[in-house]
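Researcher: I'm comparing several assemblies side by side, and this is the next one on my list. It has 654 residues spread over two chains. Same procedure as the others: predict the full complex and return the structure.
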Amino acid sequence: MERIRVAIVGYGNLGRGVEKAIRQNPDMELVAIFSRRPAGDLNIRDEDVAVLNIVDAEDYVDRIDVAVLCGGSATDLPVQGPQFARFFNTVDSFDTHARIPQYYEEMDRAAREAGHLSAISIGWDPGLFSMNRLLFEAVLPVGSTYTFWGKGVSQGHSDAIRRIDGVKDAVQYTIPVSGAMERVRQGENPQLSTREKHVRQCFVVAEEGADRERIAKEIKEMPAYFADYDTEVIFISEEELKREHSAMPHGGFVIRSGETGEGNSQLLEFSLKLGNNPQFTASVLLAYARAVYRMNKEGQAGARTIFDIPLSYLSPESPAVLREKLL
Amino acid sequence: MERIRVAIVGYGNLGRGVEKAIRQNPDMELVAIFSRRPAGDLNIRDEDVAVLNIVDAEDYVDRIDVAVLCGGSATDLPVQGPQFARFFNTVDSFDTHARIPQYYEEMDRAAREAGHLSAISIGWDPGLFSMNRLLFEAVLPVGSTYTFWGKGVSQGHSDAIRRIDGVKDAVQYTIPVSGAMERVRQGENPQLSTREKHVRQCFVVAEEGADRERIAKEIKEMPAYFADYDTEVIFISEEELKREHSAMPHGGFVIRSGETGEGNSQLLEFSLKLGNNPQFTASVLLAYARAVYRMNKEGQAGARTIFDIPLSYLSPESPAVLREKLL
């Protein structure tokens, strides 16, 4: 079997998740890991996997089918995205909601010029949750859509805290407000502000001598990430963080409460209960890496979101088998 | 605004649901209803809607953008599908799972030859549930998928009973076996036969003098619909059926229990709680009617399933607005 040759760009939680997920997909093989760190630091034991610096990407143009970009959205992807889209098909999980339109334009231009295909903002939110929001609104035009997250660790938000000067490490929990969830499930269609739906709880390890008050203020005022929420910042020791907050669970649900005809209520729900969030996101990225590879082979180029990619491209099975087995 | 001109073919529960759903979609207008019954019997009060016989379809080729086929899968759609695909773009809810591959081929040929696009087997199962089965298996390759239906009335199954000689009316409830659902939710990954997951309960009004034993036997032995289930057949009066079984609720869920990495459990779930099943199916059909209309305008022809249609085509919003608002 001809396998899809995958590269991982960035070897953090998400990159390691992609490495594990490739082992669950027999039609894929890992050929390279790009990192800013020296190869020896990464502890890669598979001798068939090249460990490379990002500056070496161009040399691998003919040896990689899809690069899975696993860097953070705040500073990595805005640079690495367009850079890698020039050399390879790409998939990423860019999740700074407010900047998606701009990132899309940049990725579309870079990928289109190079004849590559780039799927952006893939994962579960943005990603599978976005997909369900669109689907639910299209099939039930009269109604209200709600997204709740958690309780769980948000990698994007934890990452954003870690980038603050004086922060050594951090874990952020998103927690839905239970009373609000209950009202939605009862079909009340309540109007809920961002603040009424979730609280954010941040466990932060400060560098020695760092100004904790300034760190807490920077977190709480960070636009898009924390400013619109009731955010609790709790400083703890590095030991406590490792001991109590190392698991990476998450979850959430998208619900649409609508009606058809003369007041017939219709309720749609999509939910996730994830034991390991970055590993799940990695698995979603890989399914879309398969799609990107195939669509590019058919001649498509430019940027795509989860809204643009037919589901048939995600499965290793043929359309005829899918119709027979899953429809 | 240029509106999508929709025709309804078959004016039963589903057809009336489409009629109501069109009023919730401002970018669409109902231009014609095709029926085998005389126009006067249908009680259509909108003077802008032409009420036509199916044999008149050809005259309306230039006045209809999409025909929503609302006939039954057992006998109507196999004939009407290819027939209408020659004149119009079509959407249908063909739901005889075992015959989908053959129906797809026939619709693909008819639509392709005429330059039309036909979305087949749209609704919630087949339809949204199929979509989630494919998605869940692609993003979690290691795991088990379960579909549970009910408690609710299955139109397809009720319809199949009504076609039996000697049956005046019937309502079929699909009921999930609660113990089986519980085991799946606990992550046990049980192996469940078709029979272990659901029971089928049929309330039947027999024609006067009909052989009830023969009717019950025909129901219980009907392949694809009832043969693989524990099926209960209860004969009741027409009055009781109207009084106790007139609502058309349904629901169900698709769940995938999988794992990533070294045994991290991941649970995905999609569920529906429908106050009125045919009205919901009608709403799904209309969203896909929009997609079919647009994709055909872009030059696509032939048959498509829910696996082949990107979600962006379902929404009246532009791709840029979708990226900004829903991603």
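Model: For your comparison table: The radius of gyration of chain A is 21 Å.
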